[in-house]
Amino acid sequence: MSDNTKNTPPRKDRQQGNPNNLYWIYAFILLIILSFFFFMPGKNHEKEITESKFYEELVPQNAIKRVTIVNEKDVEVKIVEVYLNPSAIKPDQQKKSEQRSLWGGEEFSYYFKTISSDELVKVLKQNKIPYAVAERVDYFSGPLQLLLPIAILVAIYIFFMRRISGGMGGSQIFNIGKSKASLFDKENKVKITFSDVAGLEEAKEEVVEVVEFLKNPQKFTRLGGHIPKGVLLVGPPGTGKTLLAKAVAGEAQVPFFSLSGSDFVEMFVGVGAARVRDLFKQAKEKAPCIIFIDEIDAIGRSRGRGNFTGANDERENTLNQLLVEMDGFNTDSGVIMMAATNRPDILDKALLRPGRFDRMIAVDRPDMKEREQIFKVHLQRLVKAPDVDAQKLAIQTVGFVGADIMNVCNEAALIAARKNKSAVDMDDFHDAIDRVIGGLEKKSRIILPEEKKVVAYHEAGHALCGWFLPNLTDSLVKVSIIPRGVAALGFAQYLPEERYLENEDQIIDKMIMALGGRAAEEIVFGKVSTGAQSDLEKVTRMAYNMITIYGMSPKVGNVSFVDRQGEEFVMGKPYSEDLAKVIDEEARLRIEKAYLSAKKLLTEKRVLLDRVATALLQKEVIFQNDLEELLGLRPRIETDANQKIISVNDGLSSAVNT
Q1: Which residues contact 448 (CB under 8 A, 6 or more apart)?
Q2: What domains lie within the chain, and their CATH numbers?
Q3: Alpha-carbon distance 549 to 386, whole Å?
Q4: pLDDT tens digit string along 517-535?
Q5: pLDDT, tens digit, for every residue of 147-190?
Q6: Which residues pair with 70 in a beta bridge?
Q7: Which of 61, 424, 490, 647 could be stapled to 481 by a disulfide with Cβ–Cβ 3.0 to 4.6 Å?
Q8: Is 56 a catalytic residue?
Q9: 256-260 sheet: strands from edge to edge
Q10: Out of 295, 314, 316, 459, which one is annotated catalytic?
Q11: How far apart are the first and last CA of the chain?
């Protein structure tokens, strides 16, 4: 499946740095302004004296240090600032003067107003008092003194409104109830069509009716039928649900409203419901059109589940409004609702009833033929070598979804570029598949020789069990002891057969194969290591699933205890403590039995175990043809029509003769 969707462009604030870092600068500047406004030296009425007091008391006492005549423009009344000698300043005034001097330099002691400065200058010259004339404008007086606090409050308001509305401007707060859906119409068409969606043939057949209805609604309405109001795409992540919805819009050539379920969620009460109303209002104006909600489980979760606080009320109100809107329009209006989720089990039942999302389309993992088609789509944009075969790649990628296949193709191109190749060949694809499955190869990880030997026997044990167990149909592709990923020191790669049912014998053989690595360590070295952690986790999960889910235990019975994502069995286990002990004992016995079977098999094949481990130590990676040379042809079980075993080819003859 091809994914031609473009990556979301980075936000502007991410391109230019985080704007939150500038908020500290804004706050610091605001603090300086406020401090200067409230603490600046100004005309304090407590320090104002009369002109007569200046001439009659201060001048005769020789208490004046200097005088500044403030000659304000266009003002006839002059302000005279009087600075006293330190010996003439009272102790309490001295303390206040020192505090204020931190903000405005030397603080004057008194001031008075005068009309005639000529007489003042004459007196100052007679008493030899230093004086100066200053031109000064008081910016913080008059109307500005009233407007500045208002401006500061407005700035603070805009600052918080920008934070609340997502940093898109203070006016955005008034549009918070508007829908955030991205509209693709005639000016901005959806260019994806069904030809861009490889695989998903059954799903495409289901949605073709939607396209036909949007193109020719009379075909259905003339017979009295109507198209389903809602189409729900369900499947694992990466299978192409969003791509399929865009292809529907591209084929129908109608307006396409696209948004995520989380776009309805907001901190304000009632915003989600308002956005739902606005979305359907716009859709009716643009009809015929398609509304697509990706990850609808963000708002469509079952109501009342885990609602211990009031935090979920807003989400439930949004869901209620969505249910009402879906009931409030007819398909005759040309509005089709589509949604996608990978968790349909947690959706509210009212959302899935007929008349709302009454058609559920499964977008499952692609099979081999569909994977081949997906590979062909992605290979078109690569410069590939002639040996690249989409069919072989599809065979090696069982269980991969479209996103995984796209990642494999991209990784293969990057690997070929690192090696300075002119084209991408099959070796690059093999390396890319190994990287996707096992992780990045750790060439720098140094492993001690004794540890490498343990890893070799561990992986040889897995390979040998997988080769000779009769009920395993998965093909062993290769075995490697090259470290990959975070903690993987080696791995054995299998190609699982595409099957949907497994019997008890097949699950038990899988458990034996998983425990083959630890069994080989105990047989060869007499002790076990920590390398079997993931194997033990896998085996434990399989054992408990056999007993508690699939009903494969006679002691426990044909029961299934499944956790339905909180729908049932949330507050505790749905069985008694006595039954829990039986389940634990049954699981332990099954794991122990599988482990003993693995030890028995590897003990019988000890010569072959040493042979495979030695080859791994020499080559580090061995493939299926190498295993055939070492072990002979893989045993085949022939059965009749009633699934009874007719003969078994153990494949040992060619191995012994090697």
Answers
A1: none
A2: 41-139 (3.40.1690), 182-362 (3.40.50.300), 368-438 (1.10.8.60), 449-656 (1.20.58.760)
A3: 48
A4: 999 999 999 999 888 888 9
A5: 767 777 777 767 666 655 544 444 444 455 566 666 766 666 67
A6: 79, 134
A7: 490
A8: no
A9: 182-184, 256-260, 289-294, 335-341, 230-234, 359-362
A10: 459
A11: 45
